[in-house]
Amino acid sequence: MSEHSIPLRTPLYDEHVRAGAKLIEFGGWEMPVFYSSIIEEHLAVREKVGVFDISHMGQILVAGPAAARFLNRVLSNQIGQLTVGHGQYTMLLNETGGVIDDLLIYQLGQEQYFLVVNAAKIEEDHAWLVQHRIAGVEIANESENYAGLAVQGPQAAELLQRYLGRELPPRNGIIEVILDGIAILVARTGYTGEDGAEIFFPAPEAAQVWQKILALGARPAGLGARDTLRLEVSYPLNGSDLSPQRTPLEAGLGFFVDLEKTDLIGRDALLAQKNNGIPTRLVPFTMIGKTPPPRSHYPVLIDDLVVGETSSGGLSPSLNQGIGLAYLPRDKSAVGTGIEIDIRGRRYPALVSKKPLYKKS
Prior knowledge:
Largest sheet: 6 strands, mixed
CATH architecture of the domain at 13-54 and 144-232: 2-Layer Sandwich
Shape: globular
CATH topology of the domain at 13-54 and 144-232: Gyrase A, domain 2
Order of helices and strands: HEEHEEHEEEHEEHEEEHEHHEEEEEE
Helix content: 10-25%
Distance between the termini: 43 Å
């Protein structure tokens, strides 16, 4: 998207305006960053239940007799582990093993797969898939046809069960529910470290579904709370912590890469990196004492030497201290390592920490 382009709007834009949301541009979309305050919305998700508009995220359908074989080549995880009604976290990799996008894939039918991709990567992901498509595979970008909500928090499952009139699928499971004539895909996943589900449905029904979820007691939450929630559990953000220049091994996501797959795109580069020693690691850190919140691209120092930089950061409402993620040399990335973060020209102490940074009591 060029700097002069008009940001896209989700089908819930009018609902956000009506609710008094503070709107910002994010990944080419005009999205709510908060409605009341980031801290209030964050704590609502940690303690009760919140709802996020995720209609900006993309949906790509891949189907056909060769779909599984094709997806196993272009995606990092082992597609053969999936069965109908289940999903997994995975990544789209380039030839150098870098992360084009991280995404969720669900198997809807014997030869049908549903990919949920990051908003800023929809066109790029679709083009990459089409570029590598083989015979017996159909690829359709259905993003404009879907709206989506993430309902998250300790009370999310109970709220959704009241709304849907049935039990939710198990973790990483997906089901289709027909409600008031609306076909709703219900996926037991999320990006907050809390229980809940992400639901996808036809875009024209967005306002109706949103209003019903709010009426059942969910609090609307914006991108600000989404970011602090995911940081507390050390979930990486594409475009900040993940990029085409960084591999899943550097990002600590090797668990989601099956290097036994001999035709996986990027495999040779990843094997070489694994055999030669991973040079840098993405690690969580915790600021010590009261400090300004860290942000992305701040220098990280050890003994007066710049050894890396932060990839994301902020103030943790649950912990009431600054936290973040940073790429550091492997030999300086052990839990407990003392570091300094240069925040606008002044250094503040921090510690490389164990993930997740926030654990439920």
